[in-house]
Design brief:
Blueprint lengths: L1 H6 L5 H6 L4 H13 L1 H30 L12 H29 L3 H5 L41 E5 L5 H10 L3 E3 L8 E3 L20 E2 L6 H4 L1 H11 L1 H7 L3 E5 L5 H15 L24 H7 L7 E5 L5 E4 L2 H11 L5 E6 L6 E2 L2 E11 L5 E4 L3 E4 L11 H4 L4 E3 L1 H10 L4 H12 L16 E9 L5 E7 L6 H10 L1 H4 L12 E3 L2
Parallel strand pairs: 1-2, 1-3, 3-4
Antiparallel strand pairs: 5-8, 6-7, 6-8, 9-10, 10-11, 10-12, 10-14, 11-16, 12-13, 14-15
Helix pairs in contact: 3-4, 9-10
Organism: Paramecium sonneborni
InterPro entries: TTL/TTLL_fam
Protein name: Tubulin-tyrosine ligase family protein
Length: 510
């Protein structure tokens, strides 16, 4: 019985009153009630709200009819009356603006009247209209007093260093830049001046000026500083090109599995070309053989050597160990001494006829800068180093051959080269030609803020041929070289206020 009452439309008084005059509406609601009574119930509630809204509107209309002037009456007005008044005022304002615009249109003169128009009393009697493209002077305006802009405080940058040799120079050059100050090694710093490679992935990757971090080392600096890797990089392009830069050499790398074949080949080559073949015997060298592969180009280099050298020099790839050899027994003793600390070696032709500086062997050091954009600059002021003992090819003293200690200043070096018929310009041009042949693989992962100064060591022989004998990752440099390097790197990444324009000592190579 209860369900029948619900299913009948009479149980919803609000809907039944709405559908008195509309029979079709009533039939559609009855059908809907059979299938979805909940929908009809919600419609009944909605119709009740509509009925209340209509009653409210009727009361408003009746109230407004009684009032003659609704917006000038002093009686308090209800909230819904204020909305009606605002709407009424908008309509009145639109009507007023339309009337004014119609008046202006009606008062406008015709085109003929405009041509014959006389000047107004507000215009100057001597006024003459400007012709097309006629130039005229504009009177200068008085300057406006504007308060000067507030000066922002400069950003403070922090640095730390762990080097011992060039620490005073770094501190001296950065003291000129007033925005830089030193912090302890454990704290955050914008510039880290290091001697050993760090984990580059730990550097902040944020590009804001206050969060940038710069280091003085390239991630793959061993591509240049390691003698074996430098030779392999040049030979990978062309073995002939390698001999244009470096003296002939063999690479022996115990980190790759090919060292067994390389050592066997080097011994066979020495025995075959040695003047005393009968006394030379191969030696066994039983150490660990890794699974890592690699290529050394030793066989290709041996075919390009025209005359077997009388003397060879064995060097460790990254260390300072070196020894002059001319037989296999000396090679064996050198490898046994150095193997525990070093695993990569270069067996290079020793230049027996070097150009002498006051009777002593010397080399030329020129610093090369690689900036954050992989651009290469060379210093225009090379220096030199000479040995402490006069040169003697038969001497076994290392201070005669491989350990130069005395520094030759740039001025003295230029004067000496001029006396030998070598100008500074010709020297720099030959050095530039050799450096351009070396592939630059120092920043393969495109790190943003890295720079490094390398020291290229060159040796000149009696025929005035320049040979590259090594690259130092931590060279000695002057104050002017470091200051010029910071202008090309540090000052561009961290802008400072006290910039000074001076002639740079660095020459852009490419």
């Amino acid at each position: 019985m209860l369900q029948d009452q619900i299913k009948s439309l009479s149980s919803f008084p609000n809907l039944s009153t709405l559908c008195k005059k509309d029979e079709k509406q009533k039939q559609s609601l009855e059908r809907l009630l059979k299938h979805k009574p909940n929908v009809v119930k919600s419609l009944d509630i909605y119709s009740q709200n509509i009925e209340e809204y209509l009653k409210d509107q009727r009361r408003r209309i009746a109230y407004l009819k009684k009032r003659e002037d609704p917006y000038f009456e002093s009686k308090p007005i209800q909230a819904y009356d204020e909305a009606l008044i605002m709407q009424f005022n908008r309509v009145k304002a639109k009507q007023y603006y339309l009337q004014q615009s119609q008046k202006k249109i009606s008062q406008q003169p015709s085109p003929e009247q405009q041509r014959n128009r006389t000047p107004s009393k507000y215009f100057d009697k001597n006024y003459t209209p400007l012709k097309r493209n006629e130039k005229f002077d504009i009177p200068s305006l008085q300057p406006i007093n504007v308060s000067p802009p507030k000066e922002l405080k400069p950003i403070q940058f922090r640095y730390n260093y762990t080097m011992s040799l060039n620490d005073p120079l770094v501190k001296q050059v950065l003291s000129i830049r007033q925005q830089w100050f030193e912090v302890p090694n454990n704290s955050f710093s914008h510039l880290q001046w290091l001697t050993q490679l760090l984990d580059f992935s730990n550097l902040t990757k944020q590009d804001t000026v206050s969060k940038r971090q710069m280091v003085n080392l390239m991630e793959f600096q061993h591509e240049w500083s390691a003698k074996s890797q430098l030779y392999i990089n040049l030979c990978s392009i062309s073995p002939e090109q390698a001999l244009k830069v470096l003296p002939p050499a063999f690479v022996l790398n115990f980190k790759i599995s090919q060292w067994v074949e390389d050592l066997d080949f080097i011994q066979d080559y020495f025995i075959a070309n040695h003047p005393q073949k009968e006394k030379q015997q191969k030696f066994p060298f039983s150490v660990y053989v890794p699974n890592k592969g690699g290529q050394t180009f030793n066989r290709q280099i041996s075919k390009l050597i025209q005359e077997f050298p009388k003397l060879w020099i064995c060097k460790s790839a990254t260390g300072n160990g070196s020894m002059l050899i001319n037989n296999i027994d000396q090679l064996q003793s050198f490898l046994i001494q150095q193997y525990k600390e070093q695993k990569e070696f270069v067996i290079q032709k020793y230049i027996t006829n070097p150009l002498l500086y006051n009777g002593k062997k010397f080399d030329i050091q020129i610093n090369v800068l690689v900036n954050q954009d992989n651009q290469i600059y060379i210093s225009s002021e090379p220096t030199g180093r000479c040995c402490t003992i006069n040169y003697d090819l038969n001497s076994e003293d290392p201070f005669v051959h491989t350990k130069p200690k005395q520094i030759i200043s740039h001025k003295n070096l230029v004067e000496f080269l001029d006396s030998q018929g070598i100008s500074l310009k010709d020297l720099l041009n030959q050095i530039k030609a050799q450096i351009t042949l070396i592939p630059c693989k120092l920043n393969r992962r495109q790190r943003k803020y890295c720079m490094q100064i390398f020291g290229f060591d060159f040796l000149i022989d009696e025929n005035k041929k320049i040979n590259l004998i090594g690259i130092n990752a931590h060279p000695i440099y002057s104050v002017t070289e470091l200051d010029g390097a910071f202008r090309l790197t540090l000052d561009k990444i961290f802008p400072i206020n006290n910039k000074t324009e001076e002639k740079s000592i660095w020459i852009c190579l490419y």
